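SECTION: protein entry
WANTED: fold as C-alpha cells:
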Amino acid sequence: MDGDWTEAEVGDFLRSRRARIRPEEVGLPAHGRRRVPGLRREEVAQLAGVSVDYYIRLEQGRGTSVSDAVLDAVARVLRLDETEHAYLRTVARPQRRRSKPAGAPRVRPGVQLLLDGMERSPAFVLGRRMDVLAWNALGDAVGGFSRLAPAERNVPRLVFLDPASRELYLEWAAVAAQTVAQLRLLAGRYADDPGLCALVGELTLKSGEFRRLWTDHEVRECAFGVKKVRHPVAGLLTLPYETLTVPADPEQTIVVYTPEPGSETAERLAMLGSWNAAPAAAGD
C-alpha cells in the first residue's frame, strides 16, 4: 500500500458511494439518460457547495490539502456513516507513519496474563493485518491457533483460503463480508504497510469471493457483534464478542467472546475447556 493506492482508492470509494444514491433522494430530477447509476460528479459538487473541478481533483486523489469542511460536506451529500466518513478522511489525506522495527509484532507479557486470566471467555489478540498474535487456552480450543503455522494465523486467510471455515461459520457469507470491510478499513489506515498490500494481493488472486467483496468498497469497524460457530467437539456455539484496543499499542486489538452466563454456549465452552485440559493433566 502506498500513495498510488490511496490516490486510486479515494476515487473508487467516492464513485461507489455516488452510485448508491438516486437523484430523487437528494431532490434532483431523475429524468435524462445516465451512463452510470447514482449521482454525477457535478451533482455531488453542487450539493456539497464546491466547484466541479475541485471535486474532480478530490476523486482523482489530488485533494491531499482538502479541508475538513469540504470532506464533511461531501460525506453529508453521500450519506456516509461515521466509519465511512473517517475512512474518507484517511484515504483523502494519507499520513506517513514512522516505520516500526522489522520483525513479528510482539504482545506484551502483561497482555498475555490478561488473556490467561479470562478462563471462561475465549480471547485472542489481532495485529494490524488481522494476524492472530496471542490467545488464551479457551481461545485456542475454539480457534485452534496453536495447530497452525504462524503464516496461517491470519483471519482473512482462514476465512477465504481455508475450506474448513465454511463449515465452521454458520453464517459464512456475513463473516466474509465483515472481514473484507474490516480489512479495507485497516488498509486505508496503514496504506504504507507492504505486508497488508501483499495480503490483499494474495487474497485477490486466490479467492473469487474476496475479489468480488473487495470491489464493493465497504468499510466497517467490527467492534462488537455475534458469531455462530459449529465446533467439531463442542457443537453449535453462539458467541457474542467485544473488542478492546491495547492502549500501549493501538495497532493490537483484544477480541473476547462473551457468552451469556448460564447459557448453553457457556456450558459447552466450560466442557470444551475441561476436555482440553484433561490430556495435559493426565500427562502430568
Q: What stands out?
A: The first helix runs from residue 3 to 18. The two ends are 49 Å apart (CA to CA). The chain is about 50% helix and 15% strand.
